[in-house]
Design brief:
This protein is an alpha/beta fold. The protein folds into two domains: 180 residues, Rossmann fold, CATH 3.40.50.1100; 105 residues, Rossmann fold. The protein is built from 13 helices and ten strands. The strands form two sheets. A six-stranded mixed sheet has the order 1-2-10-7-8-9. A four-stranded parallel sheet has the order 5-4-3-6, with helices on both faces. Helix 9 links the parallel strand 7 and strand 8. Pfam families: PALP (PF00291). Keywords: Pyridoxal phosphate.
Length: 308
């Protein structure tokens, strides 16, 4: 599992404040954001599973993957491949901005070859993959976001015995891979709540599909998707969300990202205020990292998440 370096073990951090005491709720954050400075959170887990599988198959692989201009996945993949000496190609959705933003500059500096394709071309990832597989030997394709069966199985290891004692485990959801892994790891202990970062109610179907592939013999029922806290859709933000992230950082010294974990924590607090968690409940929230995503928010909106 430790094919890429892990700098720190994950740990549970207790959150204390009057709202939680008033509602008799115990809230913990699992600090997956701290396990690696560049390959943080769920990206470390997803890439560990994929890269182990790739290296088991070939001693000289090349990795091809996909992402947007501010992609956490491209950023983390570039770092992981540089650490392991694996050549990698990043297919970027849309034009590569010039000058390059901080995310793509980092990926390029780490040795990732960046190739821009139009948004219409990008929709046919299979065709792009087939094109490169014809010309590059030992090419391995990792999907956008890193979600596949190898990633799901790797993410089961996020769950430990303390988490299985919690009434609820909450996780942000973008492709559903991390959530599916946690559902598998929880083994129907407690309820897993996924907080969708995307507008719409289609991720439940994605998670169901991943569960059937990764755990075909298991009946994993104790989960549901929460779709009310996307703040306008993927990578969209609101003044209310930013104010919450800044306030949470000021109170607890924990920085949340604006695309995934910030929206999940906003949703958890709103549900607590609305008494949607029974008194006496214990909740574990997974911090999935992704803090480099603030690069895009700073560049586009000039917002400092630690200023409040």
């Amino acid at each position: 599992m430790n094919v890429i370096t892990r700098f720190q073990e994950s740990f549970l951090q207790r959150i204390s404040e009057p709202l939680l005491g008033d509602r008799e709720i115990s809230l913990w954050i699992r600090r997956e954001d701290l396990i690696h400075p560049e390959i943080s959170g769920n990206k470390w887990w997803k890439l560990s599973g994929n890269l182990q599988e790739i290296l088991d198959k070939s001693s000289s692989p090349t990795l091809l993957t996909f992402g947007g201009a501010y992609s956490n996945h491209l950023y983390a993949t570039a770092s992981a491949c540089a650490e392991l000496g694996i050549p990698c190609i990043g297919i970027v959705r849309g034009e590569i901005p010039e000058p390059r933003n901080a995310t793509l500059t980092f990926a390029s500096d780490k040795g990732m070859e960046l190739v821009s394709v139009s948004r219409s071309e990008y929709r046919n990832n299979a065709q792009i993959s087939e094109k490169y597989q014809r010309i590059i030997p030992n090419l391995y394709v990792v999907p956008e976001g890193g979600t596949n069966e190898a990633a799901v199985l790797s993410c089961t290891a996020i769950v430990d015995d303390r988490m299985k004692e919690m009434n609820y485990v909450c996780v942000p959801a973008g492709t559903g891979g991390t959530m599916a892994g946690i559902i598998g790891g929880m083994e129907n202990h407690g309820v897993v709540l996924g907080f969708s970062a995307l507008k719409g109610d289609f991720l439940s179907e994605e998670v169901n599909g991943l569960l059937k592939k990764a755990f075909p013999e298991r009946d994993l029922k104790h989960w549901r998707m929460i779709t009310d806290y996307h703040h306008g859709g993927y990578a969209r933000i609101s003044d209310e969300l930013i104010a919450f992230i800044q306030s949470f950082y000021g109170a607890h010294g924990i920085l949340l990202d604006p695309v995934y974990t910030g929206k999940m924590m906003f949703g958890i607090y709103d549900m607590i205020r609305r008494d949607l968690f029974p008194a006496g409940s214990s909740i574990c929230a997974i911090h999935t990292g992704g803090l480099q995503g603030w690069n895009g928010i700073r560049e586009r909106y000039g917002i400092d998440p630690t200023s409040f």
